[in-house]
Amino acid sequence: MAKAxxxxxxxxxxxxxxxxxxxxxxxxAVGEDGTTESGVQPPTTAAFPPxxxxxxxxxxxxxxxxxxxxxxxQRKEKLAAKKKLKKERExxxxxxxxxxxxxxxxxxxxxxETIVDPNDEEVAYDEATDEFxxxxxxxxxxxxxxxxxxxxxxxxxxxxxxxxxxxPNSHVYYRRGLALKKIIPQCISRDFTxxxxxxxxxxxxxxxxxxxxxxxxxxxxxxxxVRLRKEIKRRGKDPTEHIPEIILNNFTTxxxxxxxxxxxxxxxxxxxxxxxxxxxFHNQRDYIFFRFHRYIFKSEKKVGIQELGPRFTLKLRxxxxxxxxxxxxxxxxxxxxxxxxxxxxxxxx
Length: 349
Known about the structure:
Blueprint: H1 2-29, H2 60-92, H3 121-129, H4 133-136, E1 144-148, H5 154-166, E2 170-172, H6 180-189, E3 194-201, E4 204-212, E5 218-227, E6 245-249, H7 254-264, E7 277-284, E8 287-297, E9 303-307, E10 311-320, E11 331-334, H8 337-340
Parallel strand pairs: 1-2, 1-3, 6-7
Antiparallel strand pairs: 3-4, 4-5, 5-10, 7-8, 8-9, 8-10, 10-11
Region (Disordered): 1-59, 71-105
GO molecular function: rRNA primary transcript binding
Organism: Muntiacus reevesi
């Protein structure tokens, strides 16, 4: 047994010596300029035949290694092209062509015929005669009632309480099993202009109903990504009682214009800028992001923002004429995913 081991050990040492000698011979054959004796420069990277795919490699580790090398090579080529383009632009100076606009889903949006033109006479007439005309004509002041679904849990209750500090002149009411159809007449008799209902599922807020009183409309939103004040990092102190400024972004279609006017009617007309608070409803790809910030003036020219919370994301599900009526209500717009979400570049708001 010992002799067999000696033989195998001797053959292994001989194999290593032969391998080392072969590598030394190959290194000696390559000159200082990187060429071989025949004058041909060895390839630095593996050259794949045309039509070859990395996915054809059956060995998983080898396939992963080759894919990593290919990604590194692509990254180097992209960086080199970017540096070359930058040098060319610096050399041309003012004569350099303008930078190309990057292609995004937003700027490649499918054209919508219902995009609102602010100078259109028909749009102006609709604004003067719609359900929000009394608010924008300053005939009424907002008074909001915030309520929840039956038997709300702690997270939903805290969200309602924090919303009441964001929206001025808002009141939180717990339903105690009372139906919405009975709440709405009581709200109208007590001069409430809007009703907000926060729905929940498995102790998590997942829906919001916004109904404008007394004549509607009523919007139903899906709510997601809810973050309360304690869950926001580097948040500011609790908001003050000053009336915040409101910012509405990218509500461009007729439907989006109606939703934007509905959000605007929740806040009083004259914001108190001394409070430096701002509520933002930012529409991007039909998702409405709500944020509540405070301006921080660092100097005369520099300003920053500090989030106060809460934050959440809304997705419009339906818009109904009149007040909330789940049985006989007439819907102006209903989101139908299979029919409407046929293209990623088509948006409704």
